[in-house]
Amino acid sequence: MTTLRAYDAQQIQRTLGSIELMWPGRRGEIQGQPLHPGLRSRWFESVGMFSALFVRIAFALLLAGALSIGAFAFSPWWLAPVAAAVLLNVRIALSMSDRTAGDVLFAALLIPAEIFTWIRMSQFVRAWSLFLSRERGDRAAAQNDPAAHAGRHRSRSRRRSR
User: Fold this and answer.
1) 107-142 pLDDT, tens per residue?
2) Dihedral class, residue 54 (left if φ above 0, else alpha if ψ from -120 to 50, else beta)
3) Is 93 within 8 Å of 116 (Cβ atoms)?
């Protein structure tokens, strides 16, 4: 993937495909086997993404609430999970065979990894919303030309309004 737009479309397609495999009977003729051992990693990924999204949103809401009533009191213990996450990222980066200095720097800095996590969570939410809305379109074409996917749905909505 050479652009974020292409990576985004590819990840949404991948996540949507795994969600459809986990959900029985949603692909038409395929009955689905949601408890198949091969789908275990997909279930863990889904639970992990939902929990990561919940924790970040809950933290933001609790922080905003505490700041609004003047009850915020910083504790150094709050930095322990952040430090553990950075150390884990650095350990993973150092275990890569073809790592560069940029890989290790990306792992050592918190902000780039957090931005990437938010991008992944947005892709996950969009894939679930596509799945739940039962919207169908050419998401493979969206990897190369996102306007093709968006324009296709705009023309349908124009036909309905007439």
Assistant:
1) 999 898 889 999 999 999 999 898 888 776 665 665
2) alpha
3) no
